[in-house]
Amino acid sequence: MDLDADYPEIREAVARICAEFPSPYWRELDAEGAYPTAFVQALSKSGYLAALIPEEHGGAGLPLRAAAVILETIHRCGASAAACHAQMYTMGTLLRHGSAEQKERYLPEIAAGRLRLQAFGVTEPTSGSDTPMLKTRAERRGDKWIVNGQKIWTSRALHSDLMLLLVRTTPIEECSKRSQGLSVLLVDLREARGQGLDIRPIDTMINHNTTEVFISDLEVPAASLIGTEGQGFRYILDGMNAERILLSGEAIGDGRWFIERATAYASERQVFGRPIGQNQGVQFPIARAYAQLEAAELMARKAAALFDAGLPCGPEANMAKLLTSEAAWAAGEACFSTFGGFAFAREYDIERKWRECRLFQTAPISTNMILAFIAQNVLGLPRSY
Ligand SMILES: Cc1cc2nc3c(=O)[nH]c(=O)nc-3n(C[C@H](O)[C@H](O)[C@H](O)COP(=O)(O)OP(=O)(O)OC[C@H]3O[C@@H](n4cnc5c(N)ncnc54)[C@H](O)[C@@H]3O)c2cc1C
Q1: Distance, CA 366 to ligand 1 centroid (Å)?
Q2: Same-domain status, 163 and 212
Q3: Which residue, 300, 369, 354, 357, is CA-closest to 81?
């Protein structure tokens, strides 16, 4: 395994795009809660958002590791991929389980940036992490599904043309396992909005364009079903390792950004007649976070290597997400303390990045759920739920 900065040409090209969108761009969007349309368009045009779409469908057909490097670079440059990262991994469900006709219809359009598949509706207000308990129901009537229910935290729904929607198609009491009877629908939001589907933004502490989706007697064509009815939970789980590895890339990028900022500031800021970085109380948290980040990156690269080799990687993908999110947070804390009062001033971007970086410990899966997975599925400890 090459342990240096791999894909140097991708890192350089993505950094060049990011340089066109410097800190004031992100700060302004953050203040307004606005979507980074120009940035997403530039990234779509460059083809990097279609990194994982196979060449025969118009994409770049790159390995997952290359896609993780793209996201890492975006975050290392001080930008955020949250507005568009789902275009990379949400598409995987369609690619792996969609029919030939669905793939032919959607993937080339997504690859060309003409169609946005950014929204992914799994979480519901009452079921939370216990996904099989979700209540959104789809009933088959003739050549249509009639959908009723509610989703929460459906990010980017107002900036997407399509949404993958996880619904229950067989009542849980008729299923032998809780995870059965769920199905995935590919909903065309352009047709659905105002016709039984209503999207309302949620005011959050980060600029994430996340929403609540209310669904009432929405009619969806029967042909929108992805794969086999009742297998939806498995399809969603299938995509989760890729998602965890990609988001680990973002967390590493944030961590690197914090370390670089903290190191530079600690070297130049003079208090008591010497650089603050000369004090071990300032140095050590930065050094510790750096070591954590280096170790976490090794796990993320192992997970990606296994994924790209087509090997099982559930434990590694989960551990990568756990370790990178914690290392990035440690780097954020070290950076925040190093900047003292200035960390609170918006013009330094520390507080914005620090807020954004906290999300990795909560979504798409919380730290506790990863620990439960490792304890129960890797170590064989008794199940807690
Ligand atoms: C900004 C943002 C964007 C998001 N985007 C999307 C999206 O695009 N699509 C989507 O479907 N979802 C999205 N989510 C939802 C996200 O995946 C969930 O918030 C996350 O999975 C946790 O679910 P919850 O918030 O319902 O927490 P809950 O399930 O209510 O859990 C609350 C706390 O209790 C802990 N907990 C619960 N049960 C246990 C247990 N058995 N053992 C130990 N600890 C436990 C959890 O770890 C957590 O810390 C997003 C969330 C946020 C905040």
Answers
A1: 6
A2: yes
A3: 357
